[in-house]
Design goal:
The protein contains nine helices and eleven strands. It is of the alpha/beta class and about 230 residues long. It has two domains: about 120 residues, Rossmann fold (3-Layer(aba) Sandwich); about 80 residues, Alpha-Beta Plaits, CATH 3.30.70. One of its GO terms (biological process) is potassium ion transport.
């Protein structure tokens, strides 16, 4: 699983250098490997010795421990409460996931990301204080559908249920026109953030007389319905 599959990685706190990942199943291992390969310090935790050994052998975490995340004393002794961000990836075990999240928030962990497996699971996690609940399978499914139906969209990050930020190849209808001529704000209600010139140079906050060229990509932000109206 590549890091590009997890759009929510970009929304993790940028000033963090340390992360703890509780639950080292397929999803937890992918999260741990991605963060570790990005240069962060990662503590991996699971109650299963088998899962722990697999992560140790794969060398995808800085520290790996076998412990019960529903036991607050075990978490405290392991130093988990000292991490600014903890990812609870026990998505398929609702009770353990909720208790682990509750333990973390009651101990004062600043930012807890928790994987949910259902809407009810999501509600429970929110009730006990999870700062961010993710449905990675849903996100990957949406990204696949977008890739199949709108191949010009290179990247899409959901900001909330109604708005997204997208990077897309300049549509043929836009090529050769300036931003002023396109008037994206009035025509689509979208805001241009940047232009990536042939993948070589990123121009942030481009000027109105900037001309769109074929092969460039444009970064836009706005309403999902407006994005879907683009000629892509």
């Amino acid at each position: 699983m590549k890091k590009e599959s997890f759009g929510w990685f970009r929304r993790l706190r940028q000033n963090n250098q340390q992360f703890a990942v509780i639950g080292l199943g397929r999803f937890g291992r992918a999260v741990s490997a991605t963060l570790y390969n990005m240069g962060y310090e990662v503590m991996g935790i699971d109650s299963s010795e088998q899962q722990v050994n697999q992560v140790i052998n794969s060398q995808i975490a800085t520290h790996v421990l076998a412990l019960d995340a529903t036991d607050p004393m075990a978490l405290k002794q392991a130093g988990v409460f000292e991490f600014d961000t903890v990812i609870v990836s026990i998505g398929n075990y609702v009770e353990e996931s909720v208790i682990a999240t509750l333990n973390l928030k009651e101990a004062g962990v600043k930012f807890v990301v928790a994987k949910a497996s259902s809407k009810i699971h999501e509600k429970l996690l929110n009730k006990v204080g999870a700062d961010w609940v993710v449905f990675p399978e849903d996100e990957m499914g949406c990204n696949l559908a977008i890739s199949l139906t709108k191949p010009n969209i290179l990247e899409r990050v959901e900001l909330d249920p109604d708005n997204s930020m997208v990077e897309l190849l300049v549509p043929e209808e836009f090529a050769g026109k300036t931003l002023l001529e396109l008037d994206l704000r009035n025509e689509y209600g979208l805001t241009m953030i940047a232009i990536n010139h042939q993948g070589n140079k990123l121009e942030v906050n481009p000027k109105p007389n900037q001309r769109m060229e074929k092969g460039d990509s444009m970064v836009l932000i706005g309403d999902n319905k407006a994005i879907n109206r683009l000629p892509i």
